[in-house]
Amino acid sequence: MPLLVAGLWGTLPAHAQTPVEISFYYPVAVGGPIAKTMDGFAEGFMKENPGIKVSPIYAGTYQETIVKALTAHKSGTPPVTSVLLSTDMFTLIDEDAVVPFDDFAKTPEDKAWLNSFYPAFMQNSRTGGKTWGIPFQRSTVVMYWNKDAFKEAGLDPDKAPANWAELKTAATKLTKKDADGKVTQWGVQIPSSGFPYWLFQTLTTPNGAILANETGTAVKFDDPKVIEALQYWVDLGKAGIHPPGVVEWGTTPKDFFEKKAAIIYTTTGNLTNIRKNAGFPFGVGMIPGNARKGSPTGGGNFYIFKKATPEQQQAAFKFAKWITQPERAAQWSMDTGYVAVSPAAYETPTLKKYGAEFPPALVARDQLPVSVAEFSTHDNQRVTKALNDGLQAALTGTKTPEQAMKDAQREADRILRSYK
Q1: pTM confidence score
Q2: Which terminus of the chain is less hemmed in, N or C, by CB atoms within 10 Å?
Q3: What is the domain-level CATH number for residue 210?
Q4: How far apart are CA 32 and CA 28, in angstroms?
Q5: Range of 262's domain?
Q6: Res 335: pLDDT
Q7: Do residues 353 and 367 make contact, with C-beta atoms less than 8 angstroms apart?
Q8: At residue 239, what are phi and psi to the nearest 5 degrees?
């Protein structure tokens, strides 16, 4: 959903009447009252910065927004700033569409702010010694489980499966069938549409595999550990304890509310949504481990576009800095379920109180020390498509996990050849 920040009187002489307009694309890919919260922030920013007008406009998903932003950039009228996926960093650099935040961080206070975010989030925000993105709407994948379903299946409702073996055992006990043998409740559900590569990282990371190198120029889809992780996912379906084929990202929380799935994997950004709509006690846990623990980080960063005027860029820097201050990051986390982006946010009285009253809100933060960067490379959309196509081929049974990953590797190598 794009957001429009218009007008910056502060950089103009007192008699000037023409505001500096700042177009701000703002996407939301999960449900919840996020737009309302953003409206509140916009009003707060305008109060503190007279002459700057912030008016939200809504326009679609992350995928739609990056396409619109790059199309506008090529036609010479790009947004001034935008919240886009952290994984879009290499693409935006390749298109020469953005400028690093380091260019605007002149004071010691600015520089301290640039270094105030969780290191796990900066893995997808920095490259080549420069900061290209500022973490804002960030997440990790977490596991949600229905405590009543656990009780009914004779499982401890307060203890989440800690590893792959425990997950398979629990999911087997949690799967329910009707008299005709039709499944009415799946033991576990991991979505494979929307962001298949991201959910796949909840299996490759615990299996000790990293899908791409730090410079975004090479991938390891055919690593035996990657193939083994995909085989585990496929085998959950073959065992009849996970839905067959491709599972929808968007309807997975609803399947949880409707008790069609007892355990689901989804973003911590769905926490507020699930808290409001689950009519039963639920748990939130870290992703089960195998060789290790771990989840990918995810979500959106602020970027500043290159073709904007210096005044517009400066204003965008000011807005990004304002909205990520600890107290506002804390508020954003409570209102949405996203992870507050800095340790300082968790030290605010607001978030301390919230965390004490609702401990599930801290699970994603506590998973950060073992979290890895969300999969990202140069020519990211094409390389990601190669991986997603391979995953879906394996999950639908048209290819074996090994064949699917070898084919995806071949395609990715071809796309990335020119970046080596």
Answers
A1: 0.89
A2: C
A3: 3.40.190.10
A4: 9
A5: 140-296+377-419
A6: 85
A7: no
A8: -75, -10
